[in-house]
Amino acid sequence: MLFIANWKMNMLPAQSLDWCLGNKQELADLGADENIEVVICPSFVSLHQVKGILSLMPGVALGAQDCSAHAQGAFTGQVSAAMLAEVGADYCIVGHSERRHHLAESNELVAEKVRRLVEMQIRAISCVGETSAQFEQQLTYDVLQAQLGPVLKVLAHQKPARLVFAYEPVWSIGTGKVAEPDYIASVVSWLHELWQEQLPDSGALVAYGGSVTEENAAQLGRIQGLGGFLIGSASLNFQKFKNIVHLGSSAL
Ligand code: PEP
Predict the structure, then answer these.
(1) Ligand 1 pocket: which of 165, 173, 214 to mutate (most atoms within 8 A of CB)
(2) Which residue owns the Cα nearest ligand 1 atom 7?
(3) In the prediction, which pLDDT does 108 show?
(4) Which of 2, 120, 171, 192 maximizes the CB count within 10 A of its CB?
(5) List of E strands, the chain
(6) Residue of the nearest CA to atom 1 in ligand 1?
(7) Measured distance CA(247)–CA(214) in Å, rounded
């Protein structure tokens, strides 16, 4: 099971190092469990230093929080997939709802980012999810279909490394509200069917994100077909994150 820590724009580089170094042995122990893979996604500016620590820990991978849709060139401030590959990123989150919302990222742009990542053999963590209004109007599957359509098109022409699809209801991110396990289970199963139908060899994994805590991790971990979690605020505290990893994987 995959446990992705998304630190967002939190943790200064020194704090990121403290988090990893101060919990080095426990972190290594989590990764040493063959059923668990941990992915730490710090800010761009901390990737290099964090990699220096994680590279000695099998089962603990490095992830970035975004990448450019362009391969290289005059794109001031952007970070390419090739740069991420050189710094040692194994994974990269794309299409997070905060970027879709604050930076108006389109489904097509997100698909181009996935393309760049696949070219560099970095595993894309593609985030999808409906807003609260869309949930109320029962539009979840239409939204997911629209978000994933361009990604599926891109992937039909590439041979992707293992992919991750993170279902993150927007109304659940950072709100303390968690979707009902039965509801998440039906979305997870729908996503699996979509992949098996359209990309039978992709080995895609479906993760859930949205207010995952120590209180709900065990229950969520029992959802059929769920392959991992994307954890935001609770991942800033190592002990909370560790407990989520233990509880979320206890049903295995
Ligand atoms: C996220 O950032 O993707 C997320 C799920 O955040 P939180 O766990 O804080 O809801």
Answers:
(1) 173
(2) 232
(3) 97
(4) 2
(5) 2-6, 37-41, 60-64, 91-94, 123-128, 164-167, 205-209, 228-231
(6) 232
(7) 7
Give the mutation target among 40, 65, 170, 212 for probing the ligand 1 site: most ligand atoms within 8 A of CB.
212
Do residues 251 and 221 make contact, with C-beta atoms less than 8 angstroms apart? Answer: yes
Half-sphere exposure of 12 (CA within 13 A, CB side): 2
Residues 6 or more apart whose CB falls under 8 angstroms from that of 132 comprise 170, 171
pLDDT at 203: 78
What amino acid positions are annotated as catalytic residues?
Answer: 96, 168
Residues with CB under 6 A from ligand 1: 6, 8, 168, 173-174, 209-212, 230-234
Beta bridge partners of 125: 93, 164
* Segment 105-146, tens digit of pLDDT: 999 999 999 999 999 999 999 999 999 999 999 999 999 999
8 A C-beta contact, residue 68 and residue 79: yes
Name all contacts of 147-154 with Cβ < 8 Å and 24+ positions apart.
Answer: 147/95, 147/107, 147/110, 148/107, 148/194, 149/107, 150/107, 150/108, 150/110, 150/111, 151/107, 151/110, 151/111, 151/114, 151/126, 152/194, 152/198, 152/199, 153/111, 154/111, 154/112, 154/114, 154/115, 154/118
From the CA of 174, give the closest atom in ligand 1: 10
pLDDT tens-digit map of 87-97:
999 999 999 99
Dist. CA 76 → ligand 1 center (Å): 28
